[in-house]
Amino acid sequence: MIKDLFAKKPLKLLLEEMEGENRLKRALGPIGLTALGIGAIIGTGIFVLTGVAAHDKAGPALILSFIVSGVTCVFAALCYAEFAAMVPVTGSAYTYAYATLGELFAWIIGWDLILEYTVAAATVAHGWSHYFQDLISSFGLHIPYILRDAPFDFNPATGHLFATGTVMDFPAIVIALIMTYILVVGIEESATVNAVIVAVKLLIVLFVIVVGAFYIHPQNWHPFAPFGYGGLSFFGKTIYGRTSPGGDPLGMLAGAAVIFFAYIGFDSLSAYSEEAKNPQRDVPISIIASLIICTVLYIAVTAVITGMVPYNKINIDAPISHAFLQVGLPWAQFLVSFGALAGITSVLLVMMLSQPRIFLAMARDGLMPPKFFAAIHERFKTPWKSTILTGIVVALLGAFIPLRILAELVNIGTLLAFVMVCAAVLIMRKTNPDAERPFRCPMVPLFPILGIAFCLLLMFSLPVENWIRLIVWLLIGLAIYFFYGRHHSIMAQHRRKLAQEQQKPAPVA
């Protein structure tokens, strides 16, 4: 039984499946893929979470936090690019884990990715709602108070939850359901919508950098690190840096752990390998290009915003648009809110595009019910049933769970996925050294090891509650695997078939 849990899916079988029936449509080129990457990366992270991280965790030192997170992502991105070129099928890190670490680890990473993409999409829907409300307020319009936000929130100063007096975040529900409809219609339509939105938000980001630079007051960067440069903790106990009254780590590293969310998205490109026209070439290019472009823009925007407004006066829900309002540019607030809304919309689209493809890969392997999760629409050629399910769950989470809790839960799940992908590259280099690698991660084993170390560093910099939530989620997943997945997996069925053939009596001569 133990041996079965760690059974690996042969690389040859993965490549054979690429030519099978019921495949997704290959419709994406390098520009479309890179646009999807930028669409996924630039959004809630920069337009919303910069406020939380600068105000609560790092101050102006958030600039360094983005650099630390960006370097961490570079190591992970190179590992993702190698696998995406080797195994250009849907499934992302789940598929890579199945080929290198075995079925149990594949299930764990797949279940972890479900957490990452679903909760990330809910976080984005929540951020979209706040910028939408900020935008319509420019015209004197307001959503009824009871429909503006999640019914409770978390106060980092006290470490306690409190009631907000609202019932739900209604705009978050609406945008999640609209995105669900677009994603069911088809990948080409989704990519086209995303490309237009990406162009708009890049223009707005450049506007923020160029115009905001004229309103920078260097004194706002002093002190540069009001919470210190630390923030490293180990299962909730701070071992380097300061802590908040609620017990959470503070400092530059703690800020890096929070705004790591801003980089989530480049890894989702590997989930579209099956829909890329030339995946061996285009997916690695798009992963690396989108990450480099976004890192440069992030550092510039963070420097501008923390220079425009003192860190302790940055608005948490809509930091960039309110920064322009605070320096006396209300017209710019409207423009930024509109661009942020567009940017966050594209992130939501890409996150909700990624989740059903993880379901699809797991269902094809028998680890989830294939009649539902592997169902491809005859006309649109999309995993329509799982897309609708994803939309419903995202709408509910975005409506009822507060931003702070959602963001940190996503980060720890993503970091775990990155750790396993970096480890998988090391294992695959040993077990399949002669496999064709159109793209090779440079400086192996150094870069994968650095990727693992940096990701663990940021994981340990998150509050202990995130570890508890992650462990509970993984325990639920393991229960599903042992009661359903282990018995229905394609690999298990193959093993049982071989065992039955071996038990048949030899033919009489």
Describe it.
The chain is mainly α. The protein has one domain (28-497): Amino acid/polyamine transporter I, CATH 1.20.1740. Helices cover 65% and strands 4% of the residues. The chain is built from 19 helices and 6 strands. Helix 3 packs across helix 13 (330-364) and helix 7 (103-137) packs across helix 18 (464-488). The chain starts with a helix and ends in a 6-residue tail after the last helix.
Instruction: Output the number of helix runs.
Output: 19
Task: Determine the CATH topology.
Answer: Amino acid/polyamine transporter I
Strand order of the largest sheet: 1-2
**What CATH architecture would you give?**
Up-down Bundle
Helix content: 55-70%
**Whole-number tally of structural domains:** 1
- Annotated CATH homologous superfamily: Amino acid/polyamine transporter I
Quote the beta fraction.
under 5%
Brief summary:
Helices cover 65% and strands 4% of the residues. It has 509 residues and is mostly helical. The protein has a two-stranded antiparallel sheet with strand order 1-2.
Please outline the helices and strands.
Layout: H1 2-5, H2 11-17, H3 30-41, H4 44-58, H5 62-86, H6 93-100, H7 103-137, E1 152-155, E2 160-163, H8 170-185, H9 187-212, E3 232-234, E4 237-240, E5 242-243, E6 249-250, H10 252-259, H11 279-308, H12 319-326, H13 330-364, H14 370-373, H15 384-400, H16 403-431, H17 446-460, H18 464-488, H19 490-503
Antiparallel strand pairs: 1-2, 3-4, 5-6
